[in-house]
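Entry 14. Ran structure prediction on the chain below.
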Amino acid sequence: MSEIVSLHLANVVNLLDDCLLIQAFDTTVVEKSLRDRINPINFSVAIPVIHFLVMLFTENYKKIFSQAIFDNFPDPIPQDAFQSAVVYFTHWKKAAESSIINDNSSWKPMSRGMAIQCHNHQKAIDFVLSVLFDRRKTLSRWVMSAIFLQIKNRYFTSGNEEHNSRPYITIVMELGLK
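Output, structure tokens:
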């Protein structure tokens, strides 16, 4: 019985996270549309990563982000590394297996406006939001990065990956139900 309850609570937490992220995305779209006087509002557009993070975490994220140390980036990243980067998702898709989350296919979810909910046994991450650094270039792994989200109380390690010149963002959320 406890396995059923745990599974149910895990699904509720995942649903809450999905709602938080979609709400942050949609609110960013609405505010940008109102600011730029765009009518009707189009939710199928890429939005700046910076605006999305501000909506998700408030302005305080800027201080935290500017002090972040990137596991895969030996030098401090430039303050404007994500300045023109965009994120775009209108729905979630569950990964059928853990091998789907890789550098070679990082551009595919962006082309579909899709965020990835990782496979149940995916190590260290639970959700992936694709990030495009330069809209003017053709979608490929070389112009992509990601926002990795971890919801469970687990430790994230970068493994034995080779040096990569594209910084990524990892967000760890601990949501508990009592």
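Strands lie at 47-48, 86-87, 91-94, 114-117, 127-132, 144-150, 169-172. Will compare against last week's run tomorrow.
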